[in-house]
């Protein structure tokens, strides 16, 4: 499907009365730069100077649009005290927009804002092109990047559920499905547009999703039989998570300059300097104002984050809005209920900083990396090890009957073998591994204290490192 010809007119709206923080000269310079940079039809109405906030938000919106494969035909911005319930931007502005859409030959008008079903319907009636809002745009990008069956089903479900209440009166958008943003499902499929078929499809997709999740749950159980602490990379989209993940694991995970290249979590076991094994997972990037429906349907994808013992918050140290991005990421982490977890902040892309800024960052004690150049990776691994304090690595000796193959396998996979002897039909082995793993097999310990903790409630002896009460895992 060729959507390269898609010409998008961007509409940014700001509901605030506050004045621009840019001096007028800066606004002029910016507009001039934009015009000479080839954004066509300079009459593309800059009716209100934007604040810094909306300026960076618009930049991000442009990136999303390009990620969706469209060409930017023009931009319209507007500031109003509050949203118009019927059209979001107000009737007069809609007329103006219709003119710009026609003169820029835009075939799709994209709002950097969510539209209610009513607003969408009214706008479509009065504009010559298809109209899409921010959620649909993001869903479209998700649809293109979903790799696993589960990811694809999640995206399709979110798309269908979003579309259903917005179907009525969709003339241009839905009846002449010629492809383009908002019409693509995951893979090469086109989205269904008939109400009853959509409803049936929703039931089907939910069913399939249920099946896929069941299988995944079983796989997870198998994985968790060998307790290896999980560490998840989280962060704003484009912070460099996949690149760092690759550098850390040398795995061939897709990395891409386009946003949301990673939609499905990637998982890989790696070994830390202490020889402790961890499962590292790469996750989908967070983004400002991620539509709530999405957060819900992507909750399964973010399970890795919820299960992780330690989070690595990967930050783009070179971004001028890195602090806003950090706040945004922490907001999402709050929604996922994981703010209490140990979190290691990683200032990434330090190769893009000036020598001065880099020195300052390092002096502040921050963990600094360049995933791209492989800088700071060893130090990062050491720091991860140090964060896993809840489950320290200890050394113990066990005598295990050879018949207990599953225990031998679990210790073999989760701990480092120091010594092993075969005595009669038992294996006497000394291993170094996480206390939580070794604690499971304390009945086979050789030490005299082996039986101490069993069956007694209020004993006052000093805490046994083998008894971390791993009930929270
Ligand atoms: N200069 C520089 N560029 C980097 C570094 N790390 C990543 N990049 C680039 O930044 C872009 C985004 O990197 P990704 O690793 O895909 O970012 P991500 O956080 O996984 O993005 P999403 O999966 O979309 O959330 C790519 O063009 C990378 O080449 C770095 O340390 N230095
Ligand atoms: Mg990624």
Helix and strand element order? EHHEHEHEHHHHEHEEHHEHEHEHEHEEH
Hetero groups in this structure are:
guanosine-5'-triphosphate, magnesium ion
Superfamily (CATH H level) name of the largest domain: P-loop containing nucleotide triphosphate hydrolases
Number of helices: 16
Radius of gyration: 27 Å
Number of domains: 4
CATH-defined architecture of the largest domain: 3-Layer(aba) Sandwich
Please identify the structural class as seen in this structure. alpha/beta
Q: What CATH first level of the largest domain would be assigned?
A: Alpha Beta
CATH topology of the largest domain: Rossmann fold
> For the terminal residues, how far apart are their CA atoms?
46 Å
Largest sheet: 6 strands, mixed
β-strand number: 13
Stretches with pLDDT under 50, minimum 5 residues: 18-50, 450-473
The dominant shape is: elongated
Strand arrangement, major sheet: 6-7-5-8-9-10
Proportion of residues in helical segments: 25-40%
Mean pLDDT: 78
Amount of beta strand: 15-25%
Question: How does this structure look, described?
Answer:
With 473 residues, the chain is an alpha/beta fold. The chain folds into 4 domains: 7-138, Rossmann fold, CATH 3.40.50; 145-216, no CATH class; 226-387, 3-Layer(aba) Sandwich (Rossmann fold), CATH 3.40.50.300; 393-472, Alpha-Beta Plaits, CATH 3.30.70. Helices cover 38% and strands 18% of the residues. It is built from 16 helices and 13 strands. It has helices spanning 24-36, 52-67, 91-103, 117-126, 134-145, 149-163, 172-175, 195-224, 241-249, 292-297, 303-307, 322-335, 355-363, 377-387, 405-414, 435-439, and strands at residues 7-14, 71-79, 108-111, 130-132, 230-235, 266-271, 277-282, 310-316, 343-348, 367-368, 393-401, 416-423, 426-434. The strands form 3 sheets. It has a 6-stranded mixed beta sheet with strand order 6-7-5-8-9-10, sandwiched between helices. Strands 2-1-3-4 form a 4-stranded parallel beta sheet, sandwiched between helices. Helix 4 (117-126) links the parallel strand 3 (108-111) and strand 4 (130-132). Helix 2 packs across helix 5 and helix 5 (134-145) packs antiparallel against helix 6. The longest helix is centred in the middle third of the chain and has 30 residues, at 195-224. It is elongated and about 90 Å long. The structure holds guanosine-5'-triphosphate and magnesium ion (MG). The site of guanosine-5'-triphosphate has 23 residues, from helix 9. Residues 229-392 form the Hflx-type G domain.
